[in-house]
Amino acid sequence: MTWRPTIAALAGLCLAVGSAPFVTGAAAAPSTPVDTAHVSAHVALAGPPGAPSGVCPAGVEYGSPLPASSLSATRIQGGFSFLEGPVWVADGGYLLMSDMAAGTGPYNVQPSTIRRFTPPATFDTFIANAGSNGVALSADGQQIIAATHDQRNVSAYRLSDRARSTVAANYQGRAFNSPNDVAVRSDGVVYFTDPNFQRGNRADQMNGRTSVFRVSGGQVSLVDDRLRQPNGISLSPDGTALYVGAYSENKIYKYAVAPDGSTGARSVFVNYVGGPDGGTIDCAGNVYWTSGFDGQVHVYSPTGAQLGTIRAASSGTTNVAFGGSDRQTLYITSGRQNDSGLYSVRLNIPGYPY
Q1: Helical (H) or strand (E) element with 251
Q2: How far is residue 109's CA from residue 101's CA, in Å, rounded to a whole number?
Q3: How far is the C-alpha of 163 from the C-alpha of 157, rounded, in Å?
Q4: Closest CA to 143 of 126, 132, 157, 130
């Protein structure tokens, strides 16, 4: 998600790199142990190692994901502040999403509420004051894992009682900027992006760097601190590739992922998409990435070939998730501030719930 009040503000998003070096790469770095009592850290794999458990059966072949190369999504409801991070909860048959308002208080931090949409047309508040942006499901499906900028950390909310716990508190004792989006591997390894979009007036403890991190076994490790405003993040179904959209570079990067969850070489997956925000993956490995600039969802094959586009609002498309009983409805959060809306379109292939 990106909160973009002015073009001038965009020019200042890439901060100067401070003198304190970070170690970049796959090796785990020392970090502060965090409270993972309610987070399923290493559950048995069910289906492909990258896909959420039970979503994508192994060994299935799929055809074209799109009914046409250019599609338009249907608006379900608008008038929200700024929607982000949709996640489908199959057990309850509902969609959750963050709704962020303008910054408040001395630190100009954006309040966020998690809204619930129950098809066909019911909306209500699921968690008030959630502080969330991007949201995913835990490996066991009993919690949502949220990038929570209110506390500058990654949190878990238990679905049964909304109890909150901490997944990642800091990196080597330094506060994150403002965690933005998350992806969860089927064994519970968590990846998240940390741009500075929601940091507000709080102190920069990352020395001007905006990064991607991994949480495994309660330890936070650095994936990459060379990206300018990393935003959306997704894993391939086979678990071998991690995709990250770099908003201020207009690129989507791809990282090799080892069986233990560590990351290796980085390559450019898509060389240009205007303001890449959130993304998702279908069960064939096709990549769906939103553009904050043109309002469309851009669809790519696993090799990076563009397959088509899906239009929602004219601008400000922020994130996507598959849902519905067959997981073939793509939900899209899109629109301008204070008229952000939820959209949907039917596709040919099931996909990830976040």
Answers
A1: strand 251-257
A2: 9
A3: 5
A4: 157
Specify whether the CB–CB gap between 95 and 324 falls below 8 A: no
Kindly report each contact of residues 64-68 with a partner whose C-beta sits within 8 Å and lies 24 or more positions away, as own/partner: 64/307, 64/348, 65/282, 65/284, 65/286, 65/299, 65/307, 65/347, 65/348, 65/349, 66/299, 66/307, 66/308, 66/310, 66/347, 66/348, 67/346, 67/347, 67/348, 68/308
Residue 353 corresponds to which tokens in the numbers above?
């719930």
Is residue 7 scored above 80 in pLDDT?
no
3-class SS at 7? helix
Tens digits of per-residue pLDDT, 120-171? 999 999 999 999 999 999 999 999 999 999 999 999 999 999 999 999 999 9
Distance CA 258, CA 99 (A): 35
Closest CA to 321 of 348, 292, 305, 297: 297
User: Do strands 306-311 and 70-72 pair parallel, antiparallel, or not at all (unpaired)?
Assistant: parallel
* Contact present, 153 and 14 (Cβ < 8 Å): no
Beta carbons of 100 and 340 less than 8 angstroms apart: no
- For 258-275, the pLDDT digits (tens) are 999 999 999 999 999 999
Confidence tier at 318 by pLDDT (50, 70, 90): very high
CA-closest candidate to residue 100, choices 115, 88, 113, 118: 113
pTM: 0.87
Please answer whether residues 278 and 84 qualify as being in contact, where contact means their C-beta atoms are separated by less than 8 angstroms: yes
pLDDT band for 50, please (50, 70, 90 cuts). Answer: confident
Q: How confident is the model at residue 306 (pLDDT cuts 50, 70, 90)?
A: very high
CA angle 338, 149, 137 (to 5 degrees): 90
- CA separation for the pair 307, 300 (Å, rounded): 5
Instruction: Compute the distance between CA of residue 74 and CA of residue 72 in angstroms, rounded to an integer.
Output: 7
Contacts of 36 (CB under 8 A, 6+ apart): 165, 166, 167, 218
Bridge partners, residue 98, by sequence: 84, 114
The H or E element that residue 148 is part of is: strand 143-148
Tell me if residue 8 falls in helix, strand or coil: helix
